[in-house]
Amino acid sequence: MTFSQIILKWYAENKRELPWRNTRDPYKIWLSEIMLQQTRVAQGLPYYEKFVSAFPTVHDLAKASEERVLKLWQGLGYYSRARNMHATAKMVVGSYNGKFPSTYKELIKLKGVGDYTASAIASISFDEPQPVVDGNVYRVLARYFGVELAINSSEGIKHFKALARELMNEDEIRDYNQGIMEFGAIQCAPKKPYCLHCPLNEGCMALQKNLVNELPKKLKKTKVKIKHFNYLVFLDGKKNTILEQRTGRGIWQNLYQFPLIESEGQVTSEVIEHGISESFDAIEVGKPYEYNQKPIVHKLSHQHLYTTFWIVRTDGLLDDGLAWENLEKFPVPVLIADFIKSFKF
Question: What is the distance of C-alpha 168 from the center of its chain?
């Protein structure tokens, strides 16, 4: 059997039952692909089900407020995906009369849709012979053919795309593309792949050369930045607090947060008091104190946030204060959502 025939046979026998595999609806295929970028299936599945329930069609998603979209997305990370997804829904409704383009060439014009996503939708929904290359496919191809080019280098990206195109089964492109991705997720897994019972093991170069744990190769990432976040949790006598919306580009754009003071390192209560007097001079407060004496480390792909929540109580009433029980309505970073759940008055 050829490489593609082995993949198709394996997929027919081992594929997981997932809701987006029972449809050709490009809207649902698109939703699943956006949500599963940099996300495991087990984590993404509940979000997919929530979104399909809340927004059964692209028209429903386009009409929704960004705040509601971000709230449903809360905890899935990489929030630019959600904002791009919302913008794309509006574009599909406004420019394509609510119907997704049926070709790779048109799909790739949509916001947040790159080569992989366009290829996936075109092949899975419309049977267009386009090869998909995601992290799972990179791993399968790198190991089987013993390719040591970095998968995140320009040379590597071109090589693997050409290799994927050469291997794809055009007649059964829908199942083949889903099959090779599934094979990489389950059989040729990142850690502890099932090489002994792998149907490709006889021709696998990585297995022959003892390179399974070395491939695929990646160029080293840029240095991770360290940031120190100090959140001011104002509380008045009626259990009101203050939330602000993050503006500008960057992480957590348009999500809500407690007022924030960034610092070079851990700070004292005196520094926090000074920050409060500069920005909230109209509010008379008691001495702020740390809710968590040891910073909570929140790791993102490009930065690590060392976070302290400072409790700031006032005897007066906060102007435009927000009732604590209403905080759950606002989309917030998971770091803040966890604090809200754990905080006791």
Answer: 27
Which of 190, 237, 236, 242 shows the shortest CA–CA distance to 216?
Answer: 190
DSSP 312-329: EE-SSPPTT-EEGGGGGG
Residue 33 among the catalytic residues: yes
With contact defined as beta carbons under 8 Å apart, do 186 and 193 qualify?
no
Is pTM beyond 0.90? Reply is no
Rounded Cα gap, residues 311 and 78, in angstroms: 28
CA atoms within 13 A of residue 312's CA, in its CB half-sphere: 27
Catalytic position from the list 33, 66, 290, 328 = 33
In angstroms, the CA 51 to CA 282 distance is: 42
**Cα angle value 301/305/309 (rounded, 5°):** 145
Q: How many residues in total does the chain contain? A: 345
Identify the DSSP state of 224: P
Please report the pLDDT score of residue 57 as a whole number. Answer: 98
